[in-house]
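Predict the holo structure. Ligand: beta-D-galactopyranose.
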Amino acid sequence: MKKLLSITLVLIFNLGCLAQNNARTVVHLEKNWQFINKDIAGAQMPETNTADWETVSVPHDWAIKGPFDKEIDKQVVRVTQDLEKEAKERTGRTGALPHIGIGWYRKSFSLGEYKKGEKTLLVFDGAMSDAHVFVNGKEVGNWPFGYNYFYFDITDYLKGGENLLAVRLENPPFSSRWYPGAGIYRKVQIIVKDQVNFQQWGTFVTTPFISNEMAKINIKSAVNGENVKVVIEIKDADGKIVAMCGSDEMFGNQIEQNIGVPYPKLWSPETPYLYTAHSKLYQGTELKDELATRFGIRSVVYDRDKGMVLNGKVTKFKGVCLHHDLGPLGAAVNKSALKRQITILKDMGCNAIRSSHNMPSHEQLELCDEMGILFMAEAFDEWVTPKVKNGYNRWFNEWAEKDVVNFVRATRNHPCIVIWSSGNEVPDQSEPDGPKLARRLQDIFHREDPTRSVTVGMDQVKAVIANGFGAVLDVPGFNYRVHLYEEAYEKFPQGLLIGSETASTVSSRGVYKFPVEKLDWKTWDDLQCSSYDMVSCSWSNLPEEDFVLQDDKDWVIGEFVWTGFDYLGEPTPYGMEWPSRSSYFGICDLAGLPKDRYYLYRSRWNTTDKTLHILPHWNWQGREGEITPVFVYTNYNSAELFVNGVSQGIQKKNFDTKQNRYRLMWMDVKYEPGTVKVVAFDDNGKAVAQKEIHTAGKPHHLELSADRKEIAADGKDLSFVTVTVVDKDGIPCPTASNQLNFKVSGAGRFKAACNGDATSLEMFHLPTMKAFSGKLVVLVQSCENGGDIELEVTGKGLETAKMAIASK
Ligand code: GAL
């Protein structure tokens, strides 16, 4: 075997990060961008005076520093998806943050050894929105959709020495249903390569045959150039070459190879094993381009009798929907924040994410590949018929195909993606042209990726049954409407159905309301929701309604709960009240702290660890003697509850009501301060686990716990430190709202704080915030020089708390 020279260098360059092999150079444009939040005629021209522009790093979200203002993007709308009969004034729908308007970015760069005539691409992972991109004063292109990946060939716009990149972005009002973020919120790269090259996103790796002994890896490489040869080495996760192949047989611009990998290790959520295809492009003996494509070997079949079959095993989606914002970080993508989210979700037993309702970041997909999360990758929230006046409807006809093409080509090698979604609750589903549009989009997905199925999250169930829209789809997806699943299953031809959006139960972490009753809409004066999790919305339902279908119907192939984490904007049920600026739907709050519901899902989804969780908290001064129901979320089937040692009886999971099947509930407990204890039994009635909660005294000191105490010294990595207000005995004070202050010294900086309170107008980036339900989270970011970091948290009347974090 002839081993070809391949050296990969990773350098830190003044521009940012530079990755180079001997055939192509990739430059990340991260630091030293100039930014201004207004329109300036001719801002792309080199001579523009930028004295009053701010210096920022990309990814950047210009709106996240606020301030919150209820007048921003105030929308008077009738939300048909929410079954509204008349238009209502909505504040906070898009987060009440200043994302509306025009922003300009500029960045100077030079390409070092750049040789005239080399192919140079400028690649954006997403820019919010309507990007007009200029190089050296000339416009090189425009990409309207803020969520998509796009690139321009800037070869002919470059000169030797310094070049100027300028980007104009514009977010009109009434263009979103949630906080979209603002600015260049994902990464930007320049790729310099030979004229003879692998086309951008032109390599497609699939695994059409898998057996224990052998997997067939099919690799299609789209190339620019003639008389070329593609040589591919497949390496396993340890970097060992396990297969190799070369071909110069061109079909049009494509070279296709089938390579056998012996005894393949399969990718799955439990074993997310990854291989890498190292492709080299030769003209004669000269190496012209080089590419590494990571992939997984796995098979996915949607089988009408079995459901979703992954590597031969029936697998249900235990999924959550996620918006793209990262709470206190806004839309600016950050890999460690995404990793923390996935870590929290995996502990819950979650195995899937739906990127609602847009293209996910590459960083999120990379993590899902590595950590083992199935992915429903969604394209649009709107097609032709508007939900919001200035939404994607403005662009659909001209841009939808281009957007789907970029979406699929840029992401199709991720093994985590197991289904595409072409739309979410698009109003077109009940329009006469709806089925044609659905088919047109699905055909584009299939053309670009014949290996995956396509769904749409539908909510107009009667209409899509009647007009054929639902029958067009590979896999019908339903948002809520559990009472219509059975009818749709009978009438649709596919024989299976996916809960593309489920539950939409609303709660505020650590807040409980009385009396405890099941309702489909309820608001309270403090603009909070109850964590007894008995309230959904008029169009949605409680988790159990979905559990029953998931458990009892094989043809329901899984669910995606709305949502895994709270997000900025859409503060249902308080869309008409102020202040309220973020959602209540999350299983975890905006800070990433689990609400009680987390444990309900964990008790069902995490089948390897035990869950035994008691709610509510036990600090109810003033409620002495009053009925204060206690719920336990557990994967044990029965348990006994004690209040101050007095038994409240044994509860068993049973099929009497949907709630009793999944929650243990003691509805008649009377509050008295002290200790609540639960003792759980195994199926033989033996006590096997127990848990206690206690009434807390006055706030006394603070406890800090970090998700990671060692972070990378790269200026980006984050440690998320949870701060808990506790009494003198260390018992968490569940109602504490102390104003806390943060100071970070050493090799790190204070990045943001978040308490998960949807009604808080305190800004995330300021080093002070009130605790909410006794807790908040502080985000500490590394600098580029390694060393010790110290976080200090203070609060009036509380002992100061300190935490050391190492940055390496
Ligand atoms: C759905 C919609 C989501 C979100 C959710 C709230 O109808 O698809 O984007 O708005 O309702 O319950």
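Confidence is low (pLDDT under 50) at residues 1-17. The pocket of beta-D-galactopyranose is lined by residues 81, 356, 424-425, 459, 479, 501, 504, 537, 540, 562, 570, 572 (CB under 6 Å).
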